[in-house]
Amino acid sequence: MKQIPSACPVRSERPLSKAADIAYIRLGRKNLESASAYYQDFGLDVMEKKEGRILFRGNSSDLPCWSLEKADRDFLIGLGIYIHSSEDFENLKSIPNAEFKQNGRINSFPCVTLFDPSGLPVDVIYIPEERIRIPKKSREGLWNSPGKSPRANLPRPYDSKPAKIIRLGHAVFLKQEFLKNASWYCETFGMIPSDIQILPESKEPVIVFLRFDRGDILSDHHSIVIASGIADSLEHCAFELEDLDEVARGREWLLGRGHRPGWGIGRHLLGSQIFDYHRDPSGMLVEHYADGDKFDSSVPTGIHLINRKSLYQWGEDMPKDFLDTSLSLRKLSELCKGIRSGKQISVPTLMELKKVAEVSPRTWIKY
Ligand SMILES: [Fe+2]
Known about the structure:
The chain is an alpha+beta fold.
């Protein structure tokens, strides 16, 4: 393994808590109805519709994993994280500025809201472990392979309908202060950096894939990703599906309904997921994935150089607009605001990242 540069986020030896999983994402949306129709095509089920808010769930749980809330602009409101230890929950309640609610914001479980260094509200929901259902594979045995034909005399079944979403898998956040935010998630929730990507010239770390520390229990390779960004924002969210067929079926349905594709189908390098990205009506990326890596707490942090090709091992060519490297007025104004407010922002790092993200992995393809 390469030497970890000194300014990288690291696993904390004494975190304030060990959280268990990502619970939900809350989004403000100007047009709630079009967003709601989109996410039903995407594969989520509506579980509660009240004035100004629609809650959705996947198939592995009766708890919400997606909250769309009426707003005057499209933006990220916050996220939720599950915790199973009452002792750890009490620790988090004692953090200055923590807001405790006996009945959580979007379900009935006790919740404490913290604020990450960028000011994003993070609801920590105390929930018994047995309350979380473990998804079971239901389509086992449908693949014929050389010497093995579990589908003898049967054609492949096909149903034209939205993908069956199992659960919310991960969210990727862009942060002006990369190290400060990444370290906060490690120290507050005991998250482990599964892999870190560094820039080729300066060797500055710019992306960290964080997993929850469940000891011997397997965790997703990443549930939260922190990446350097010009503005604090949500880059994408990803939902787990059963298998490649389900990913492809989801793609067929969304394209057939006239929705905008993002990038896919392919397989990521770090995390290994088979992925397919789409854009919701606001333009935000959302991902269907299957077959992601699962690690226990024993796997050490990997360090890798970042470039456009490091995002996938195979797949469709990445569209030019997939990584938003534009310097819009809005982003520049956010950057100036951040610098003026005294944030530790490295402009040379952001510029090197922009340069790296614009280089095609296949030079014969003109982006
Ligand atoms: Fe992803």
